[in-house]
Amino acid sequence: MGRLSKYKNIFLVCSLLINSSSFAEIISEAAVIAAMEKQDRLSADLERDQRSKPQAVIPLLSLETGDRVLDIFAGGGYYTELLATVVGAEGEAILHNNGGFEAWGVNGLTDRFAKEREPGNIVRHTRSGINLDLEANSLDGALIVMAYHDLYVVPKRYNGEKYIPVGNTANTEYFLHQVYEALKPGSRFVIVDHSGDSAMEHEMVADLHRIKEDFVRSEIETAGFKFIESSDALRNPEDDRTMIVFDLDVQGKTDRFVFAFEKPII
Length: 266
Known about the structure:
By secondary structure, the protein is of the alpha/beta class.
């Protein structure tokens, strides 16, 4: 083989590598905004956009078109449809629920999967309790929005005088291990949740359906994840974090944190 032919072959290989990587498009804020402007979105989704600001959340997953992403305890699937739109037809968005979250989101699910609609490449994945039932290294990203705190809520029942515990918190070590194992190395796990008062007792914070930010970081990092970045897009300094999130005075406008973690490349 002549020297010129050798260099031509090297150039051809490099060109193929560059071109193949260019097919995948990074999911930017602009891409999410374009997804939000898609025709035939549900009216409830359009109403939620302003308070959820998905254009500030989804890019933290560091996804590309064609990726496979999990929406954990997705309820009615608000985020799942946006994820399906941005990853495109070659990608996949997994709408995970357990029985409770599916019942809570039933109206949204009914509307989302109505016969005349096309919500994108969404796979519904309903499992029991905190079981995720996913293959190892199968995900390019995972998201859990305002549901992580539920893993730490102690089930209680009113006995006529006060609320008493009737169960235990979820096995969070097992839950996080499942997320960690399902993600590919270098993939991200993003958490959005209601911020709790760091001065309160942990159980009291959980009763308000909130969670302490430093506690979240500690738990996720202990599970093997690396903290990458956060966003202040959903902050509300007017929320003093003392009210339950369902109180009408704060519902939909709580002080929320957004954390992005990564499964390290070992």
